[in-house]
Write a structure and sequence with these properties.
Number of strands of chain A: 2
Radius of gyration of chain A: 20 Å
Oligomer: homodimer
Helix content of chain A: 55-70%
Strand order of the largest sheet of chain A: 1-2
Strand content of chain A: under 5%
Order of helices and strands of chain A: HHHHEEHHHHHHHHHHHH
Structural class of chain A: mainly alpha
Largest interface: A-B, 50 and 50 residues
Distance between the termini of chain A: 8 Å
Shape of chain A: globular
């Protein structure tokens, strides 16, 4: 699957308008005529400006998380507009993590374009990410103007921050794993539950909480978490075997970064000691060149890890599917969730 | 002045206990026996653990912002304990900015110790800072348990995030100024109002807001802002002429970083074109060595900029003093504010 399903397109202009209004409301004075403000850097990352500050239109990402928030709110209440501030918040948190992630991983490309740090340097890119995280909170306060009561708003804000902190913990573990010799599948799942699933679970949860009582959101959370886990393992597969023209990132990228992604952890779990030794002789090198990448690919292909990773993705896909059956929403909305879920595990970008 | 006045010591154990309880409440599992968790890195930065995770006691900083929050809350209500979550939040936001600032400026020392990035690398130090910012928000939600009403809590949270975003904008400007040829005193003040004064103003403001009506906090805010401006210009003076044994940072540090700090901006404003040319011949070099630092010091000393900077500090000191007269609090508390103010502009560290 190389194209976003229509359900994404439906919410996209609304999500963009919400975030754009937040950014344009900031009054940071531009001191010189040259150079970009921190908000222009943000808009570049989000695909709305080019690196000179001129209006442009490039890939903005899928808005998966915001889409889940809006679809859920619409499923529960019949209308998604009250959830827009929450959707903007969650998407800004996600993009904060991408901007910092690119710095941490030294990634020079994101969505087929140079990353923020590659253009403006790492010090300013750190500021861009942190500003996005803070703007995310300011976005969420606008729920108050949408007549979400103060108690509910505090609960939603707290869940956003709890999930964001889990995401950062996951990012810490992911980086930490790079230099640890053996990571088990259990360790790996512990990490991606934080790094990826926490925020996706949150996006479904807060969409539901705008109108539902907290005790009624359990199945929404379960669905979000399982979808998040399926999504990440599929992402790991694309990070190794993906087509770089479609993903926007160099192929074999995750191997070069020595990531302990699912296919790697999975292959390691089946290797004997001498195979492991051979593997770490390469993976422990300071830098991994294209020949090394090919050697690792051969090892992974020999261990059947692509198929096993695909199987693990399907396992979480099926869990998410059965969670869907328990959601207290209309059948046509269940169909939309299914389309999203199915797209995520079958996409090639 | 080389020692903290007793008013700082009074609140310090309470501030530390509040932050420590937040950190110890996190359940991030340690995957390996070696290596530090993100929370151990935080505790190292805050002076409570050494870099191996053993209990230690080193300089934790002044806790200026949290002290102002607690003193203000106590001045207004007779008791500071309800303000503790807000004080913890503001101190975590400040420390988030320090951890990222050290990465951005390549600073290897902070409070006489290696910086977080110097020990654990920049990728993890970015996570440590971002986690602190997020933990700050989680800290503030505890105001709800202290019977601060939901509407007031939302107002306080929003002010915290607004101030934090201003601080990041200021940090963006500060870095941007390094490569711009001419920065006016107006530009400089625009920058430090954000980088430093916004969060200090916020610390006084939220201390007052816990018990006072928003319309009654204007003079508290004015005091905080003017104290913040005096504080930053004094900091700039120490960044050039400070004693490195006392400040914990190498002397001439701000010159090496090509900072457009107040003494520099002030000297530039009085230079003729040929003097400016001489100045920028040095300041535009890729790296500035000790001889260059000495040359810049000679230029600054020749332009009387230390005295002018001291005068500017006193100007804001006097404004803050006159704001104090308008605060609706007891005389003995005014005395505490005066002690803090006077310490900040006379300190040598």
């Amino acid at each position: 699957l190389s194209e976003l399903p229509p359900v994404f397109e439906k919410y996209k202009p609304h999500i963009e308008r919400e975030i754009q209004s937040l950014i344009s409301g900031r009054d940071l004075i531009k001191i010189s005529k040259n150079g970009s403000t921190i908000y222009e850097m943000m808009s570049y990352h989000l695909g709305w400006l080019d690196c000179n500050g001129a209006i442009a239109r490039s890939n903005s990402g899928k808005y998966l998380r915001a889409t889940l928030t809006l679809l859920t709110s619409e499923s529960v209440s019949g209308n998604f507009s009250r959830a827009l501030p929450a959707a903007a918040a969650i998407e800004l948190i996600h993009n904060f993590s991408l901007v910092h992630d690119d710095i941490q991983d030294d990634d020079e490309l994101r969505r087929h374009k140079p990353t923020v740090w590659k253009i403006w340097g790492k010090p300013q890119a750190i500021n861009v990410g942190s500003a996005m995280k803070t703007l995310a909170n300011l976005a969420a306060y606008n729920l108050y103007n949408k007549k979400v009561c103060a108690e509910n708003l505090i609960m939603i804000l707290k869940i956003l921050d709890e999930s964001c902190l889990k995401m950062i913990e996951g990012q810490y573990l992911d980086i930490d794993f790079e230099k640890r010799p053996e990571i088990t599948i259990k360790d790996y799942l512990h990490m991606i539950k934080r790094k990826t699933a926490a925020l996706i679970e949150c996006s479904v949860q807060i969409g539901a909480l705008i109108d539902l009582n907290p005790v009624k959101v359990k199945h929404f959370r379960d669905f979000g978490r399982n979808l998040g886990l399926a999504f990440q393992i599929k992402d790991d597969i694309l990070g190794i075997w993906g087509n770089d023209k479609k993903t926007g990132k160099p192929s074999g990228n995750d191997i070069k970064k020595k990531k302990k992604s699912f296919p790697v952890v999975c292959a390691l779990s089946t290797m004997n000691d001498s195979a492991k030794k051979e593997f770490f002789n390469i993976y422990n090198k300071k830098t991994i060149d294209d020949i090394d990448v090919q050697k690792i690919l051969n090892i992974l292909n020999g261990s059947n890890s692509e198929k096993l990773s695909q199987k693990k993705t399907e396992q979480y896909y099926n869990l998410a599917l059965s969670d869907l059956k328990k959601l207290p929403v209309n059948k046509d909305k269940i169909k939309d969730y299914e389309i999203i879920l199915s797209f995520l595990v079958n996409r090639d970008f």
